[in-house]
Amino acid sequence: MKATVWAGRNSVEVQSVPDPKILNDRDAIVQVTSTAICGSDLHIYDGYIPTVKHGDILGHEFMGEVVEVGKGVTNLKAGDRVVVPFPIACGACWACENELYSLCENSNPNAGIPEKLMGHSPAGLFGYSHMLGGFAGGQAEYARVPFADVGPLKIDDDLTDEQVLFLSDILPTGYMGAEMCGIQPGDIVAVWGAGPVGLFAIISAYLLGASKVIAIDRVPYRLALAAEKGAIPVNFGEQSVLETLRDITAGRGPDHCIDAVGMEARNGSTVVDAYDRVKQAARLETERPHALREAVLSCRNGGTISVIGVYGGLMDKFPIGAVMNRSLTIKTGQCHVQRYMRPLLERIRNGEIDPTFLITHRLSLEEAPHGYEIFKHKQDNCTKVVLKP
């Protein structure tokens, strides 16, 4: 089969690789009908995620048709159409029983690696390094899905792939980012990053009762899209974010701040930007945490910081004094996708959310390298790339 594989920093290739096979009774093989390039994939593309190897199949946002199931999978059959969540979860451990699916205690066969870096291991993830299981991703013609009796969401109606594909990751992630804020009616929410996850966080914040949502980015077409969804756009390349947020909130600061950027944040200040970029390039820190620093400093006293942007290791100059002295609450996590898939599917069916507005580019699988390039460099107003194997 054909698959998108990592070929070194800033390089992916579409290669012929062996077809996946059933390895466990709870496996399924899915023929991929739609898959997408995620902002998290760019961290791999840029070479910042450790334990990624040449030839690893990328991609964690995918859906398709079941073509084979192991004998332990009784809830699916060949021909079923499914969306696959990006965390792999067993459904039976303490974490899964408490709906913390991205922390599954049984799905990462390489748990010893993240234990050394993080203290404990999170769940295995599709297409996201050997540290997180070494599982082949879904930017391919076929994918093996472990614990298929737990993860995949069966789509029984005539909703299109594009309407439901993002249930695999970015829609639940944006929603969880807003939910973790504990939004009360009338609250003001600021979102760092107007990419796909940030845009879904904006929509979700309004669904949960926010009175104002502020979108912070520097890319004009992304800010324009955020404004279309009701957000107040703030261009950090042209405005002081802290001063602008104080002005919008009468000096208090937003009630809640969502970091939808993660480890490769940029800054309007060339000095701060250069500092983080040099330290990250020299591997003296693994993150460029400017967005998170700014969120902490911007949030009102007693407010909430919700972190859904991906971080991988260690950061420098984190303002822990502000967190402690100003009674800020930080909530974080890889999304527990399985918890949100069905409720969000109902919102899509009811017309409350139309995820398709994000899609700007529809490409064949063979065009994946081009898709990565335009997505990374924000060319041709690229917001979201969907690949059709």
Largest sheet: 7 strands, mixed
Q: Could you estimate the helical fraction of the residues in percent? A: 25-40%
Tell me the domain tally.
2
Assign the structural class, choosing from mainly alpha, mainly beta, alpha/beta, alpha+beta, or little secondary structure: alpha/beta
CATH class of the largest domain: Alpha Beta
Unreliable stretches, pLDDT < 50, 5 or more residues?
none
- Label the overall shape: globular
The proportion of residues in beta strands is 15-25%
The H/E string reads: EEEHEEEHHEEEHHEHEHEHEHHEHEHEHE
Which superfamily, in CATH terms, is the homologous superfamily of the largest domain? Medium-chain alcohol dehydrogenases, catalytic domain
**The CATH topology of the largest domain:** Quinone Oxidoreductase, Chain A, domain 1
Mean pLDDT: 96
Distance between the termini: 10 Å
Radius of gyration, CA atoms, in whole angstroms:
20 Å
CATH architectural group of the largest domain: Alpha-Beta Complex
Number of helices: 13
User: How many strands?
Assistant: 17
Summarize the structure.
The protein is an alpha/beta fold and 389 residues long. It has helices at residues 39-45, 94-97, 112-118, 161-164, 170-179, 196-207, 220-228, 241-248, 270-281, 290-298, 320-325, 337-349, 368-376, and strands spanning 2-6, 12-16, 28-37, 61-69, 81-84, 87-88, 124-125, 142-145, 153-154, 188-192, 212-217, 232-235, 256-259, 304-307, 329-332, 361-364, 385-388. The longest helix is centred in the C-terminal third of the chain and has 13 residues, at 337-349.
